[in-house]
Amino acid sequence: MFDLTVLGQQAKKSARELALMSTTRKNELLALMAQALLDNEENILVANQKDLAQANDNGISTVMQDRLRLTRQRIEEMAVGMRQVIQLADPIGEVEKMWKNPDGLMIGRQKVPLGVIGIIYESRPNVTTDAASLCFKTGNAVILRGGKEAFYSNQILVAILQKTLKSAGVDENAIQFVADTSHEVANQMMRLTQYLDVLIPRGGAGLIRRVKETATVPVIETGTGNNHIYVDKDAQLEMAIRITDNAKTQRPSVCNAAETLLIHQDVAAEFLPKIAEKLAEHNVELHADERAMQYLPDAVAAVEEDWSTEYLDYIMAVKVVDSITEAIAHINFYNTKHSEAIITDNYFASQKFLNEVDAAAVYVNASTRFTDGFVFGFGAEIGISTQKLHARGPMGLEELTSTKYIIYGDGQIRE
Asked: What GO molecular function annotation could you give as one example from this UniProt entry (predicted)?
Protein backbone atom coordinates (compact mmCIF):
# COMPACT_ATOMS: atom_id res chain seq x y z
CA MET A 1 0.00 0.00 0.00
CA PHE A 2 1.10 3.56 -0.74
CA ASP A 3 2.82 4.96 2.37
CA LEU A 4 1.99 8.57 3.22
CA THR A 5 4.64 8.78 5.91
CA VAL A 6 7.33 9.94 3.51
CA LEU A 7 5.03 12.62 2.09
CA GLY A 8 4.24 13.74 5.60
CA GLN A 9 7.89 13.99 6.58
CA GLN A 10 8.71 15.95 3.43
CA ALA A 11 5.76 18.28 4.00
CA LYS A 12 6.75 19.00 7.60
CA LYS A 13 10.27 19.91 6.49
CA SER A 14 8.99 22.10 3.66
CA ALA A 15 6.45 23.83 5.91
CA ARG A 16 9.26 25.12 8.14
CA GLU A 17 10.93 26.69 5.10
CA LEU A 18 7.68 28.14 3.78
CA ALA A 19 6.74 29.72 7.09
CA LEU A 20 9.84 31.92 6.89
CA MET A 21 9.56 32.84 3.21
CA SER A 22 8.99 36.52 2.43
CA THR A 23 5.82 37.72 0.79
CA THR A 24 7.79 39.00 -2.20
CA ARG A 25 9.36 35.61 -2.77
CA LYS A 26 6.05 33.76 -2.43
CA ASN A 27 4.45 36.10 -4.95
CA GLU A 28 7.32 35.63 -7.41
CA LEU A 29 6.86 31.87 -7.23
CA LEU A 30 3.08 32.07 -7.60
CA ALA A 31 3.57 34.13 -10.76
CA LEU A 32 5.94 31.51 -12.14
CA MET A 33 3.47 28.73 -11.35
CA ALA A 34 0.59 30.59 -12.98
CA GLN A 35 2.63 31.08 -16.15
CA ALA A 36 3.68 27.43 -16.12
CA LEU A 37 0.02 26.40 -16.29
CA LEU A 38 -0.41 28.45 -19.46
CA ASP A 39 2.83 27.18 -20.94
CA ASN A 40 1.68 23.59 -20.42
CA GLU A 41 -1.89 24.00 -21.65
CA GLU A 42 -1.64 21.25 -24.27
CA ASN A 43 -0.24 18.68 -21.85
CA ILE A 44 -2.94 19.50 -19.30
CA LEU A 45 -5.70 19.08 -21.89
CA VAL A 46 -4.29 15.73 -23.02
CA ALA A 47 -4.27 14.46 -19.44
CA ASN A 48 -7.79 15.75 -18.89
CA GLN A 49 -8.98 13.91 -21.98
CA LYS A 50 -7.77 10.66 -20.39
CA ASP A 51 -9.96 11.38 -17.38
CA LEU A 52 -12.94 12.27 -19.56
CA ALA A 53 -12.54 9.08 -21.59
CA GLN A 54 -12.67 7.03 -18.41
CA ALA A 55 -15.68 9.03 -17.24
CA ASN A 56 -17.56 7.98 -20.36
CA ASP A 57 -16.57 4.35 -19.82
CA ASN A 58 -17.67 4.52 -16.17
CA GLY A 59 -21.06 6.02 -17.01
CA ILE A 60 -20.51 9.33 -15.21
CA SER A 61 -23.33 11.72 -16.08
CA THR A 62 -22.87 14.61 -18.51
CA VAL A 63 -23.56 17.11 -15.73
CA MET A 64 -20.87 15.60 -13.48
CA GLN A 65 -18.42 15.48 -16.40
CA ASP A 66 -18.77 19.25 -16.58
CA ARG A 67 -17.09 19.45 -13.14
CA LEU A 68 -14.22 17.43 -14.51
CA ARG A 69 -13.74 18.99 -17.93
CA LEU A 70 -10.87 21.42 -18.55
CA THR A 71 -10.78 23.84 -21.46
CA ARG A 72 -8.30 26.51 -22.45
CA GLN A 73 -10.57 29.07 -20.82
CA ARG A 74 -10.74 27.12 -17.57
CA ILE A 75 -6.96 26.70 -17.48
CA GLU A 76 -6.61 30.44 -18.05
CA GLU A 77 -9.07 31.02 -15.19
CA MET A 78 -6.90 28.81 -12.96
CA ALA A 79 -3.89 30.96 -13.80
CA VAL A 80 -5.91 34.13 -13.20
CA GLY A 81 -6.92 32.76 -9.80
CA MET A 82 -3.29 32.22 -8.84
CA ARG A 83 -2.40 35.72 -10.00
CA GLN A 84 -5.25 37.19 -7.96
CA VAL A 85 -3.83 35.50 -4.88
CA ILE A 86 -0.61 37.42 -5.55
CA GLN A 87 -2.53 40.70 -5.29
CA LEU A 88 -4.03 39.83 -1.91
CA ALA A 89 -2.41 40.92 1.34
CA ASP A 90 -0.30 38.24 2.97
CA PRO A 91 -1.72 37.64 6.46
CA ILE A 92 1.33 35.77 7.74
CA GLY A 93 3.29 37.74 10.33
CA GLU A 94 0.52 40.29 10.81
CA VAL A 95 0.09 41.31 14.43
CA GLU A 96 -3.61 41.92 14.90
CA LYS A 97 -3.26 44.00 18.05
CA MET A 98 -0.87 44.81 20.91
CA TRP A 99 -1.72 45.70 24.48
CA LYS A 100 0.09 46.20 27.78
CA ASN A 101 -1.02 44.17 30.77
CA PRO A 102 -0.74 45.26 34.44
CA ASP A 103 2.70 43.61 34.69
CA GLY A 104 4.05 45.84 31.93
CA LEU A 105 4.18 43.03 29.37
CA MET A 106 3.45 43.95 25.76
CA ILE A 107 1.22 41.18 24.40
CA GLY A 108 0.40 40.74 20.72
CA ARG A 109 -1.51 38.22 18.64
CA GLN A 110 0.27 37.27 15.42
CA LYS A 111 -1.01 35.29 12.44
CA VAL A 112 0.96 32.16 11.55
CA PRO A 113 0.54 29.26 9.10
CA LEU A 114 -1.44 26.20 10.13
CA GLY A 115 1.51 24.05 9.04
CA VAL A 116 0.70 21.05 6.83
CA ILE A 117 -2.76 20.92 5.28
CA GLY A 118 -4.24 17.77 3.78
CA ILE A 119 -7.04 18.06 1.23
CA ILE A 120 -9.21 15.17 0.03
CA TYR A 121 -11.41 16.16 -2.90
CA GLU A 122 -13.39 14.88 -5.85
CA SER A 123 -13.79 15.58 -9.56
CA ARG A 124 -12.75 19.20 -9.99
CA PRO A 125 -9.12 19.76 -11.13
CA ASN A 126 -9.29 23.49 -10.41
CA VAL A 127 -9.30 22.60 -6.69
CA THR A 128 -5.70 21.48 -7.19
CA THR A 129 -4.44 24.90 -8.23
CA ASP A 130 -6.77 26.86 -5.94
CA ALA A 131 -5.64 24.88 -2.90
CA ALA A 132 -1.98 24.95 -3.88
CA SER A 133 -1.91 28.74 -4.37
CA LEU A 134 -3.78 29.60 -1.18
CA CYS A 135 -1.73 27.21 0.94
CA PHE A 136 1.53 28.44 -0.59
CA LYS A 137 0.70 32.11 -0.02
CA THR A 138 -0.06 31.40 3.64
CA GLY A 139 3.14 29.44 4.19
CA ASN A 140 1.42 26.06 4.48
CA ALA A 141 2.65 22.88 2.86
CA VAL A 142 -0.17 20.90 1.27
CA ILE A 143 -0.78 17.24 0.52
CA LEU A 144 -3.43 16.82 -2.18
CA ARG A 145 -5.45 13.66 -2.63
CA GLY A 146 -7.88 14.02 -5.52
CA GLY A 147 -10.46 11.52 -6.71
CA LYS A 148 -9.88 8.83 -9.31
CA GLU A 149 -12.16 10.72 -11.73
CA ALA A 150 -9.54 13.46 -12.17
CA PHE A 151 -6.38 11.47 -11.48
CA TYR A 152 -4.44 12.33 -14.65
CA SER A 153 -5.46 15.99 -14.56
CA ASN A 154 -4.47 16.42 -10.92
CA GLN A 155 -1.24 14.51 -11.40
CA ILE A 156 0.02 16.71 -14.22
CA LEU A 157 -1.06 19.93 -12.51
CA VAL A 158 0.93 19.09 -9.38
CA ALA A 159 3.89 17.93 -11.49
CA ILE A 160 3.93 21.32 -13.26
CA LEU A 161 3.81 23.23 -9.98
CA GLN A 162 6.52 21.08 -8.42
CA LYS A 163 8.80 21.44 -11.43
CA THR A 164 8.37 25.20 -11.29
CA LEU A 165 9.34 25.33 -7.61
CA LYS A 166 12.33 23.04 -8.10
CA SER A 167 13.58 25.11 -11.04
CA ALA A 168 13.41 28.18 -8.81
CA GLY A 169 15.49 26.52 -6.11
CA VAL A 170 12.59 25.91 -3.73
CA ASP A 171 11.60 22.64 -2.09
CA GLU A 172 8.99 21.15 -4.41
CA ASN A 173 7.53 19.14 -1.54
CA ALA A 174 5.62 22.25 -0.48
CA ILE A 175 2.95 20.90 -2.87
CA GLN A 176 2.52 17.12 -2.93
CA PHE A 177 0.19 14.68 -4.64
CA VAL A 178 -1.07 11.34 -3.35
CA ALA A 179 -0.73 9.05 -6.36
CA ASP A 180 -3.14 6.47 -4.95
CA THR A 181 -6.93 6.92 -4.98
CA SER A 182 -7.80 3.86 -2.88
CA HIS A 183 -10.01 4.08 0.20
CA GLU A 184 -7.23 2.51 2.24
CA VAL A 185 -4.82 5.34 1.52
CA ALA A 186 -7.55 7.92 2.09
CA ASN A 187 -8.20 6.38 5.50
CA GLN A 188 -4.47 6.47 6.24
CA MET A 189 -4.42 10.16 5.37
CA MET A 190 -7.35 10.82 7.72
CA ARG A 191 -5.25 9.46 10.59
CA LEU A 192 -1.91 11.06 9.71
CA THR A 193 -1.90 13.05 12.94
CA GLN A 194 1.90 13.08 13.24
CA TYR A 195 2.24 15.15 10.08
CA LEU A 196 -1.07 16.79 9.16
CA ASP A 197 -2.21 19.81 11.16
CA VAL A 198 -5.64 19.93 9.53
CA LEU A 199 -7.63 17.98 6.95
CA ILE A 200 -10.14 19.57 4.58
CA PRO A 201 -12.56 17.34 2.65
CA ARG A 202 -14.16 18.80 -0.45
CA GLY A 203 -16.74 16.76 -2.31
CA GLY A 204 -20.06 15.01 -1.99
CA ALA A 205 -22.00 14.14 1.13
CA GLY A 206 -20.58 10.62 1.24
CA LEU A 207 -16.96 11.77 1.26
CA ILE A 208 -17.54 14.44 3.88
CA ARG A 209 -19.45 12.06 6.14
CA ARG A 210 -16.69 9.44 5.87
CA VAL A 211 -13.99 11.96 6.72
CA LYS A 212 -15.93 13.23 9.74
CA GLU A 213 -16.48 9.68 11.02
CA THR A 214 -12.98 8.35 10.31
CA ALA A 215 -10.49 11.20 10.75
CA THR A 216 -8.37 11.65 13.85
CA VAL A 217 -6.72 14.68 12.20
CA PRO A 218 -8.64 17.92 12.96
CA VAL A 219 -11.18 18.53 10.17
CA ILE A 220 -12.57 21.70 8.64
CA GLU A 221 -15.83 20.59 7.08
CA THR A 222 -16.73 21.94 3.67
CA GLY A 223 -20.35 21.05 3.17
CA THR A 224 -22.69 19.93 0.49
CA GLY A 225 -25.15 22.45 -0.89
CA ASN A 226 -28.84 21.73 -0.43
CA ASN A 227 -29.65 25.37 -1.19
CA HIS A 228 -33.02 27.12 -1.43
CA ILE A 229 -34.60 30.02 -3.29
CA TYR A 230 -37.60 31.49 -1.46
CA VAL A 231 -39.91 33.66 -3.60
CA ASP A 232 -41.75 35.96 -1.18
CA LYS A 233 -45.23 37.42 -1.72
CA ASP A 234 -43.59 40.82 -2.31
CA ALA A 235 -41.10 39.58 -4.89
CA GLN A 236 -40.61 41.04 -8.35
CA LEU A 237 -41.56 37.91 -10.27
CA GLU A 238 -39.46 38.61 -13.34
CA MET A 239 -36.44 39.03 -11.08
CA ALA A 240 -37.35 35.82 -9.28
CA ILE A 241 -37.50 33.95 -12.60
CA ARG A 242 -34.03 35.18 -13.64
CA ILE A 243 -32.48 34.37 -10.28
CA THR A 244 -34.09 30.94 -9.94
CA ASP A 245 -33.11 30.00 -13.48
CA ASN A 246 -29.52 31.10 -12.88
CA ALA A 247 -29.22 29.41 -9.50
CA LYS A 248 -30.49 26.11 -10.89
CA THR A 249 -29.21 25.91 -14.46
CA GLN A 250 -26.11 28.09 -14.88
CA ARG A 251 -23.97 25.23 -13.52
CA PRO A 252 -26.10 22.63 -11.73
CA SER A 253 -23.20 20.34 -10.81
CA VAL A 254 -21.65 22.67 -8.22
CA CYS A 255 -22.38 23.04 -4.51
CA ASN A 256 -23.77 26.59 -4.72
CA ALA A 257 -26.52 25.66 -7.21
CA ALA A 258 -30.10 25.83 -5.89
CA GLU A 259 -31.91 22.55 -5.28
CA THR A 260 -35.28 23.62 -3.80
CA LEU A 261 -37.70 26.40 -4.73
CA LEU A 262 -40.12 27.69 -2.08
CA ILE A 263 -42.98 29.99 -3.16
CA HIS A 264 -45.36 32.04 -1.06
CA GLN A 265 -48.95 30.94 -1.66
CA ASP A 266 -50.03 34.46 -2.69
CA VAL A 267 -47.85 34.40 -5.84
CA ALA A 268 -47.78 30.66 -6.58
CA ALA A 269 -50.53 30.70 -9.21
CA GLU A 270 -48.81 33.43 -11.24
CA PHE A 271 -45.19 32.47 -10.66
CA LEU A 272 -45.08 28.70 -10.96
CA PRO A 273 -46.26 28.35 -14.59
CA LYS A 274 -43.76 31.03 -15.63
CA ILE A 275 -40.77 29.49 -13.85
CA ALA A 276 -41.74 26.05 -15.13
CA GLU A 277 -41.70 27.38 -18.68
CA LYS A 278 -38.28 28.96 -18.15
CA LEU A 279 -36.73 25.89 -16.52
CA ALA A 280 -38.17 23.70 -19.28
CA GLU A 281 -35.71 25.39 -21.65
CA HIS A 282 -33.03 23.39 -19.79
CA ASN A 283 -35.19 20.28 -19.36
CA VAL A 284 -35.27 20.70 -15.60
CA GLU A 285 -37.38 18.04 -13.90
CA LEU A 286 -39.58 19.48 -11.15
CA HIS A 287 -40.50 17.48 -8.03
CA ALA A 288 -43.49 19.34 -6.59
CA ASP A 289 -45.54 19.09 -3.42
CA GLU A 290 -49.32 18.67 -3.63
CA ARG A 291 -50.07 22.41 -3.63
CA ALA A 292 -47.51 23.17 -6.32
CA MET A 293 -48.68 20.28 -8.48
CA GLN A 294 -51.94 22.05 -9.33
CA TYR A 295 -49.91 24.69 -11.21
CA LEU A 296 -47.29 22.27 -12.60
CA PRO A 297 -49.05 19.53 -14.56
CA ASP A 298 -45.78 18.08 -15.89
CA ALA A 299 -44.10 17.83 -12.48
CA VAL A 300 -43.27 14.68 -10.54
CA ALA A 301 -44.89 14.28 -7.13
CA ALA A 302 -42.31 15.13 -4.47
CA VAL A 303 -41.45 12.69 -1.70
CA GLU A 304 -39.81 13.38 1.66
CA GLU A 305 -36.37 12.58 0.30
CA ASP A 306 -36.57 15.42 -2.21
CA TRP A 307 -36.39 18.09 0.49
CA SER A 308 -32.98 16.90 1.69
CA THR A 309 -31.40 15.91 -1.65
CA GLU A 310 -28.47 17.71 -3.29
CA TYR A 311 -29.28 16.75 -6.88
CA LEU A 312 -26.30 18.36 -8.66
CA ASP A 313 -28.40 17.87 -11.78
CA TYR A 314 -31.27 19.39 -13.77
CA ILE A 315 -33.78 18.53 -11.04
CA MET A 316 -35.46 20.89 -8.60
CA ALA A 317 -37.85 20.38 -5.70
CA VAL A 318 -40.78 22.82 -5.44
CA LYS A 319 -42.97 23.64 -2.44
CA VAL A 320 -45.70 26.22 -1.75
CA VAL A 321 -45.57 27.77 1.74
CA ASP A 322 -48.07 29.89 3.67
CA SER A 323 -45.58 32.42 5.01
CA ILE A 324 -41.97 33.49 5.28
CA THR A 325 -41.94 31.90 8.73
CA GLU A 326 -42.82 28.53 7.21
CA ALA A 327 -40.16 29.02 4.52
CA ILE A 328 -37.46 29.76 7.09
CA ALA A 329 -38.49 26.77 9.21
CA HIS A 330 -38.31 24.49 6.17
CA ILE A 331 -34.89 25.83 5.18
CA ASN A 332 -33.40 25.51 8.66
CA PHE A 333 -34.69 21.95 8.97
CA TYR A 334 -33.51 20.62 5.61
CA ASN A 335 -30.60 22.78 4.52
CA THR A 336 -26.90 22.00 4.72
CA LYS A 337 -26.09 25.52 5.98
CA HIS A 338 -24.45 26.53 2.69
CA SER A 339 -26.30 29.23 0.68
CA GLU A 340 -29.89 30.49 0.89
CA ALA A 341 -31.73 33.28 -0.95
CA ILE A 342 -34.92 35.30 -0.60
CA ILE A 343 -36.47 37.26 -3.46
CA THR A 344 -38.48 40.16 -2.07
CA ASP A 345 -39.01 43.92 -2.16
CA ASN A 346 -40.12 43.89 1.48
CA TYR A 347 -37.32 45.23 3.68
CA PHE A 348 -38.68 43.65 6.85
CA ALA A 349 -39.02 40.25 5.17
CA SER A 350 -35.45 40.48 3.90
CA GLN A 351 -34.13 41.33 7.37
CA LYS A 352 -36.12 38.52 8.97
CA PHE A 353 -34.65 36.09 6.43
CA LEU A 354 -31.09 37.37 6.97
CA ASN A 355 -31.41 37.18 10.75
CA GLU A 356 -33.14 33.83 11.08
CA VAL A 357 -31.76 31.60 8.33
CA ASP A 358 -28.82 29.51 9.53
CA ALA A 359 -26.35 29.31 6.65
CA ALA A 360 -22.84 30.37 5.71
CA ALA A 361 -24.14 32.73 3.01
CA VAL A 362 -27.60 34.35 2.95
CA TYR A 363 -28.73 36.41 -0.05
CA VAL A 364 -31.39 39.00 -0.73
CA ASN A 365 -32.38 39.29 -4.40
CA ALA A 366 -29.34 37.47 -5.79
CA SER A 367 -28.42 33.99 -6.99
CA THR A 368 -26.81 31.45 -4.68
CA ARG A 369 -24.24 30.86 -7.42
CA PHE A 370 -22.19 33.77 -6.09
CA THR A 371 -20.96 31.80 -3.05
CA ASP A 372 -17.43 31.43 -4.31
CA GLY A 373 -14.04 32.55 -3.05
CA PHE A 374 -13.11 33.96 -6.46
CA VAL A 375 -16.30 36.05 -6.57
CA PHE A 376 -15.90 37.19 -2.96
CA GLY A 377 -12.48 38.63 -3.81
CA PHE A 378 -10.37 35.89 -2.20
CA GLY A 379 -8.60 35.04 -5.47
CA ALA A 380 -9.59 31.41 -5.05
CA GLU A 381 -10.98 29.23 -2.31
CA ILE A 382 -9.96 26.15 -0.42
CA GLY A 383 -13.62 25.23 -0.04
CA ILE A 384 -16.83 26.55 1.49
CA SER A 385 -17.03 25.78 5.17
CA THR A 386 -20.49 25.06 6.55
CA GLN A 387 -19.35 24.62 10.14
CA LYS A 388 -19.02 27.36 12.74
CA LEU A 389 -15.67 26.69 14.39
CA HIS A 390 -12.54 28.34 12.93
CA ALA A 391 -14.02 29.19 9.53
CA ARG A 392 -17.38 29.63 7.81
CA GLY A 393 -18.25 30.32 4.19
CA PRO A 394 -15.70 30.57 1.34
CA MET A 395 -12.26 29.95 2.81
CA GLY A 396 -9.49 32.17 1.56
CA LEU A 397 -6.11 33.20 2.98
CA GLU A 398 -7.32 34.32 6.40
CA GLU A 399 -8.96 30.97 7.09
CA LEU A 400 -5.69 29.11 6.47
CA THR A 401 -3.94 30.81 9.38
CA SER A 402 -3.74 30.29 13.09
CA THR A 403 -2.42 32.66 15.75
CA LYS A 404 0.26 32.75 18.36
CA TYR A 405 0.84 35.24 21.13
CA ILE A 406 4.08 37.20 21.17
CA ILE A 407 5.07 38.82 24.46
CA TYR A 408 7.73 41.47 25.09
CA GLY A 409 9.06 42.01 28.60
CA ASP A 410 11.92 43.80 30.29
CA GLY A 411 12.74 41.37 33.06
CA GLN A 412 9.31 40.66 34.58
CA ILE A 413 8.80 37.60 36.75
CA ARG A 414 5.52 36.38 38.17
CA GLU A 415 5.32 36.74 41.95
From this structure: NADP binding
DSSP state of 219: B
The domains of the chain, with CATH numbers, are: 4-222+382-408 (3.40.605.10), 227-370 (3.40.309.10)
- pLDDT-based confidence at residue 1 (cuts at 50, 70, 90): low
Instruction: Give the integer Cα–Cα distance in Å for 149 and 152.
Output: 8
d(CA 125, CA 78): 9
Euclidean distance between CA atoms 226 and 242, whole angstroms: 20
Question: 339: closest CA among 375, 379, 393?
Answer: 393
Percentage of the chain exceeding pLDDT 90 = 82
What residues have CB less than 8 Å from 84, skipping those under 6 apart? Answer: 374, 379, 380
By the 10 Å C-beta count (0-12 exposed, 13-18 middle, 19+ buried), 132 is classed as buried
Which residue, 293, 290, 219, 281, is CA-closest to 244? 281
Cβ(8)–Cβ(143) under 8 Å? yes
